[in-house]
User: Fold this.
Amino acid sequence: EIVLTQSPVTLSLSPGERATLSCRASESLPSNYLAWYRQKPGHPPRLLIYGASARATGSPDRFSGDGSGADFTLTISRLEPEDFAVYYCQYYGSSVFTFGPGTTVEIK
Amino acid sequence: QVQLQESGPGLVKPSEILSLTCTVSGTSIKSHYWSWIRQTPGKGLEWIGYVDYRGSTTYNPSLESRVTISIDTSKNQFSLNLRSVGAADTAKYYCASSFMSSWHGTFDFWGQGTLVAVSS
Assistant:
């Protein structure tokens, strides 16, 4: 069973700053089915990135994803007010979907 | 625009069955895989299982023994039954969809979620 770990747990930044979030898998992922979601309070998660680096429809271009194997990164180039939220990575493999525990991006 | 709406009781007694329905609009029910996902402060997001328009299902192995997901294409609805519930099943339950034609292993659309508490 693949386990996803996200770091840091909390990231304290100011609007306009760059955010770098990490997602690490317990083993190298056999496929590139790695996605990122943003969840704002009181809302469901929203898909941002799929296939590790492709932006989902409607996802702003300040979001970018990178990585392969067991290490993946989500970068937010300049934080907007709506980006202060929780971010989850998610993997699909062997007919199972797995989520990471999340990283909270908070206003410094 | 794909829209999903969960409905069902907000309170279920221990050992009973948790039943929820998701109503789909804005798309063909034959175009997606339809999932249930739950979220708790302690365990985070947990995928429960999915169904396609033919009624074919795949479940999370950790819940498989207690879960049934079914679909009613005539009503554009799919449903979750979770048996023998306990306090650990208290969660916000979401329905979500994944495109079949452009499969990326992601959840492309989500309902707003419904909170279900298990308590006597």
Summary: The CA atoms of residues 13 and 107 of chain A lie 5 Å apart. The mean pLDDT of chain A is 96. The first strand of chain A starts at residue 4 and ends at 7. Chain A touches chain B at residues 31, 33, 35, 37, 43-47, 50-51, 54, 56, 88, 90-93, 95-102 (CB under 8 Å).
